[in-house]
């Protein structure tokens, strides 16, 4: 019987290795601070006491955040962007049969981070700008991290195909091609039910 091995590393160290490997595997070039932000985002979701949604839908929280001012607005926009990125990357498959799909979460995240980029100056503004501009690529990175941590599965090819058509995710397309299925991008998401 193989002996169990336990590694004593923090969530930040654990996710840093996974995020860097996923970014390299997918050919995503990003500033070091942006990848560090994503690593810390994942480490933050490990803790049970992370900020709760407060019962409002994410879209409602986004609109309420836009109505705020100053640091409160920035904090709430960041929470919307972070939750959108996390849900889109880790739980995209569970959204396929819900009222809102993964593309809705992705758009909210892009808008939230884009708003933050316009409000923030300097280095943090650049981080949010890169997250907004490469949101779909970072969703793919989190999707790969999710698979490596066994928190989701793409065994259902139909869901993977639907995700590919809805989000135009290069990574989803690559996974389909690896399984011998060539996505037909001329079919729009309006044909998916």
Question: Can you walk me through this structure?
Answer:
This protein has 193 residues and is an all-alpha fold. It has 2 domains: 11-153, no CATH class; 154-193. It is 65% helix and 0% strand. It contains 9 helices and no strands. The protein has helices at 11-26, 32-46, 58-67, 70-90, 102-119, 122-133, 135-148, 157-167, 170-178. The radius of gyration is 17 Å and the shape is globular. The N and C termini lie far apart (48 Å). Residues 189-193 have low confidence and may be disordered.
Helical stretch count? 9
Question: What is the strand content?
Answer: under 5%
Task: State the domain count.
Answer: 2
Radius of gyration: 17 Å
User: What is the general shape?
Assistant: globular
Helix content: 55-70%
Distance between the termini: 48 Å
* DSSP strand tally: 0
- SSE ordering: HHHHHHHHH
Main sheet record: none
Secondary structure category? mainly alpha
Overall pLDDT level? 80
Low-confidence stretches: 189-193
């Amino acid at each position: 019987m193989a002996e169990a091995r336990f590694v004593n590393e923090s969530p930040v160290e654990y996710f840093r290795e996974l995020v860097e490997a996923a970014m390299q595997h997918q050919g995503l070039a990003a500033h070091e601070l942006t990848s560090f932000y994503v690593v810390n985002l994942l480490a933050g979701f490990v803790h049970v006491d992370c900020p709760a949604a407060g019962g409002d839908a994410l879209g409602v929280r986004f609109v309420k955040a836009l109505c705020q001012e100053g640091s409160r607005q920035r904090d709430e926009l960041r929470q919307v962007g972070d939750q959108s990125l996390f849900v889109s990357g880790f739980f995209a498959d569970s959204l396929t049969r819900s009222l809102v799909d993964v593309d809705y979460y992705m758009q909210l995240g892009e808008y939230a981070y884009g708003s933050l980029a316009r409000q923030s100056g300097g280095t943090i503004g650049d981080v949010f700008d890169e997250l907004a501009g490469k949101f779909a690529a970072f969703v793919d990175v989190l999707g790969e991290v999710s698979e490596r941590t066994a928190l989701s599965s793409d065994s259902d090819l139909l869901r993977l195909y639907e995700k590919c058509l809805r989000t135009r995710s290069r990574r989803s397309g690559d996974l389909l091609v690896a399984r011998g299925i060539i996505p037909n991008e001329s079919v729009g998401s309006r044909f998916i039910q």
